[in-house]
């Protein structure tokens, strides 16, 4: 009888472990309280998660008045942000925001990076949009959209000092791979 009880307990605990909800298996829209997020699943595995109000999500970064995409390459490399106190401050606050948002998932994200893409307004230097990319087979797929929303709302409005080159673009594209600690 004792062995049966132990077996049942083990099976129950295994089922709880395996029953993690994967929120991002298919392309869909999340209508939440006061905001709407879009989840685009590419080739059944890659997730792009973003606020439906974003205007730059699938728009190429370009020089203003041009129809040619602008990509930073080794040939035309020029930093788009000035390396001043605001950049160092924002980079560290960025890590704090992400780590705080994933506080309930400590250890679960170990070994997995989340790609956070920011779109910065080239007129003001402020982050105006945030996009998240991750494979849907990682622990990030079990995190509800509200956590990503928390990160977005705290990043929106952070200000960077832009270089003259950055001010000539329609927006400034920047991405960070981050593994919450």
Which secondary-structure class do the elements indicate?
Answer: alpha+beta
Distance between the termini: 43 Å
Count up the domains. Answer: 1
Helix content range: 10-25%
What's the total helix number?
3
Order of strands in the sheet with most strands: 1-2-3-5-4-6
Mean pLDDT: 86
Q: How many beta-strand elements? A: 6
Q: What summary fits the major beta sheet?
A: 6 strands, antiparallel
Radius of gyration: 20 Å
Question: What is the chain-wise order of helices and strands?
Answer: HEEEHEEHE
CA-based shape:
globular
Descriptive overview:
The protein has 181 residues and is of the alpha+beta class. The protein has one domain. 25% of the residues lie in helices and 23% in strands. The chain is built from 3 helices and 6 strands, in the order H-E-E-E-H-E-E-H-E. The protein has a 6-stranded antiparallel sheet with strand order 1-2-3-5-4-6, with helices on one face. Helix 2 packs antiparallel against helix 3 (145-155). The longest helix is centred in the N-terminal third of the chain and has 17 residues, at 2-18. It is globular, with a radius of gyration of 20 Å.
Would you summarize the structure shown here?
With 181 residues, the protein is an alpha+beta fold. Helix content is 25%, strand content 23%.
Topology record:
Elements: H1 2-18, E1 28-31, E2 36-42, E3 46-51, H2 85-101, E4 114-121, E5 127-135, H3 145-155, E6 171-178
Antiparallel strand pairs: 1-2, 2-3, 3-5, 4-5, 4-6
Helix pairs in contact: 2-3
